[in-house]
Amino acid sequence: FLFQMQMLDKFPMEGGQKDPKQRIIPFLPGKILFRRSHIRDVAVKRLIPIDEYCKALIQLPPYISQCEEVLQFFETRPDDLAPPKE
C-alpha cells in the first residue's frame, strides 16, 4: 500500500489524479480482512491479483517501471533467499 501511494504521488498524471482516463498505473488489489487461522487461504486468493499487478507495473514505460521506487520494491532481500520456515 505504501509503495502504491509513493507511485501515485510521484506520477500523478499516470495515476489518473487529473484525468482518470489517463491512468496507466495499475490498481492495487484491495485488502482482505481475515482471522489468524485464514492467513494462508487469504494469501493464496491474493496471489493471482498481486501477480497481475506486478506484471502490469513492470510493463509500464521505462520512466516508471525502472524508477528507483520500483527497483527497490522488487529488490531481493535476505529473507527472500532464506525465507522463514513458518
From TrEMBL:
GO terms for biological process: superoxide anion generation. One of its GO terms (molecular function) is superoxide-generating NADPH oxidase activator activity. Residues 1-81 form the PX domain. It comes from Copsychus sechellarum. Gene3D superfamilies: Phox-like domain (3.30.1520.10). This is SPD2B protein. InterPro entries: NADPH_Oxidase/PX-Domain (IPR051228), PX_dom (IPR001683), PX_dom_sf (IPR036871). It comes from the Eukaryota. GO terms for cellular component: cytoplasm. It holds the Pfam family PX.
